[in-house]
Amino acid sequence: MREPSVAPDTLSPEARHLAGRRSTLVSVVVNVVLTVAQGTIGVVAGSQALVADALHSLSDLVSDFVVLFAGHHSRKGADHDHPYGHQRFETAASLALGALLLAVGVGMLWAAVGKIQHPEGVQPVLGMALWVALGTLAAKEGLFRYMLRVAERVRSSMLVANAWHARSDAASSLVVALGIGGNLLGYHVLDPVAAIVVGLMVSRMGLRFGWDAMNDLMDRAADEDVVAALRDAMLQTPGLLGLHDLKTRKMGDLILVDVHLEIQADLTVEQGHAIATEARRRAMARDDVLNVMTHVDPVRLPRDAAVSA
């Protein structure tokens, strides 16, 4: 399924929501099929690694529903209790995804380590497990590329996180295929070893997503290049002498800005307000800026400079 080639800046909020929802529903269908196939064949073929990968696909399915839930609620407008809107629903969803991945990864490690400690209980697996692992690898890699393309087009960190979750599944499926292949060659312990590697990969990704989301919930600033672009845009405002104390904080995938504007002291209130309004308009022209709070600081210029100005 190919998304229309449309620049991010031309997409309306409704179009972005629909594109993200459509990609998530595609992921739901893929993960339902893979969870059933991996779980069933993993049990029948006696492959712990494939069963672990099925649990990973199941966690993807749960995360897809979390994304759909958060995507619905994050679109709500501002209200009395949430004057800046509900965009942080997406950040909270990313935190939940991280916690889910970490829990799944730790569970995989616990089960696989138990097998390693009792290697006599590890049995050879059936060849059908390898074909399912290879098919899963191809499906997950294709799903990742599709979801990441949509996520970048609509500029959603939550959808990016969900896409990379699919990529982690593709990587884990590769490890599972190698482990099953080694088991089929007679190295039976490689199947639980593959399950351990998958558990470590899933746990690492869960920690990374959770940490990033937690930083955003703690009002992490926007990237340095974004702050520099905001500064340059406002400094081009006619009549603005300078600015200081430019602060930003993340609000979901949007940015809140606070800034002190330096304006000539002997201007009228109306003139100073007009300059501040224009500076704010230039910052708000970015599609990732939710609101800009300005404070006017009067600057008294030397007489010669005031005359030349």
UniProtKB/TrEMBL annotation:
This is Cation transporter. It is found in: Membrane. Belongs to the cation diffusion facilitator (CDF) transporter (TC 2.A.4) family. GO terms for molecular function: monoatomic cation transmembrane transporter activity. It is a multi-pass membrane protein. Keywords: Membrane, Transmembrane, Transmembrane helix, Transport. Residues 25-218 form the Cation efflux protein transmembrane domain. It comes from Cupriavidus pauculus. GO terms for cellular component: membrane. The keyword Magnesium does not apply. The keyword Transmembrane helix applies. The chain crosses the membrane at residues 25-45, 92-113, 125-148. Its main location: membrane. It comes from the Bacteria.
